Amino acid sequence: MPELPEVETVVRSIAPLVGRHILAAEFRCPRVLRGGDPDVLSARLGGSSIARVERRGKFILISLDRGGYLVIHLGMTGRLLLGGTPGKHTHAILTLDRGALLYDDSRQFGCILYSDEVPERVRRLGPEPLEISFEDFAAALKKRKARIKALLLNQRFLRGLGNIYADEALFRAGVHPLALASRLRRGRALRLYDAITAVLTEAIAAGGSSVSDYVDGQGRKGFFQFSHRVYQRTGEPCLHCGKPIRRILVAQRSSHYCPACQKR
DNA sequence: ATCGGTACCTGCACGC
DNA sequence: TGCGTGCAGGTACCGA
């Protein structure tokens, strides 16, 4: 489900959590705790209040008034819902003084962790794509030999882009997914930088992309999927030149692009 | 240090 | 109807 625009939308939608008191925390699936002890976690959370909810790349940080963070990653199919009925894939339930927070994840690629400090895996993320300057972006590109698509998916390079927005940004910039990062000239780097900014900004405004089952914390779908130009449009005509959109694998991920509009 | 491949898990759409 | 295949927003880990 979730790349930067979806996670941003979820974080905004769960703003009502701020100030809520956690009465109890129940964890039903040890796997999503990634080795964390459910009893320790319940004890840590029970009795604290939620001070802040924020996003770092695709991670959600919920800070507690007593210190410490509940760190959540939604993986591919994770959902955070304010209330609702627990289902087959509900792995965590926080009971609040008003309402509840449910964590749902059918594929169990997401995780829930508790940490006293911002954990290493969050601290080592690259810069936010909507905060980095063009000069820093261009300088970072020059140092990398990887194919541009793989690099855009690397969270230590930029945090928050995923398969949808990487493909959409590359299309808008006219850059082929297999292009080598270090070989992009300044003009093309600038087009890419601007395309990333535009696509993320538009997607956030649209509440993200609901490709299969993504919804925000209040159960609302996004509608940026209607603005996708290449993602999952294999064989359909390019909206710019009419040639069929192609799908190839780059770094084992589907990459959708126009063979005529995107040059290496 | 950086890379490419693989593993993790469930559900769905498809062809037979 | 059922079964096998391939695909899906993610990252971690391994060896090269």
Task: Tell me what the structure shows.
This protein is 26% helix and 22% strand. It folds into two domains: 120 residues, N-terminal domain of MutM-like DNA repair proteins, CATH 3.20.190; 124 residues, Orthogonal Bundle (Helicase, Ruva Protein, domain 3). The chain is built from seven helices and ten strands. By secondary structure, it is an alpha+beta fold. The strands form three sheets. The chain has a four-stranded antiparallel β-sheet with strand order 1-6-7-5. α4 crosses α7. The two termini are 29 Å apart. A hairpin with a 2-residue loop joins β2 and β3. It is elongated.
CATH architectural arrangement of the largest domain:
Orthogonal Bundle
Highest-level CATH class of the largest domain: Mainly Alpha
* Largest sheet strand order: 1-6-7-5
Query: What percentage of the residues does DSSP assign to strands (E)?
Result: 15-25%
Major sheet: 4 strands, antiparallel
- Under CATH, the topology of the largest domain is which? Helicase, Ruva Protein, domain 3
What's the overall geometry?
elongated
Uncertain residue ranges: none
Number of strands: 10
| SS element count, helices | 7
Q: Kindly report how far apart the N and C termini lie.
A: 29 Å
Which range best describes the helical content: under 10%, 10-25%, 25-40%, 40-55%, 55-70% or over 70%? 25-40%
Secondary-structure element pattern, one letter each: HEHEEEEEEEHHHHHEE
Please state the structural category. Answer: alpha+beta
User: What is the domain total for the residues?
Assistant: 2
Radius of gyration: 19 Å
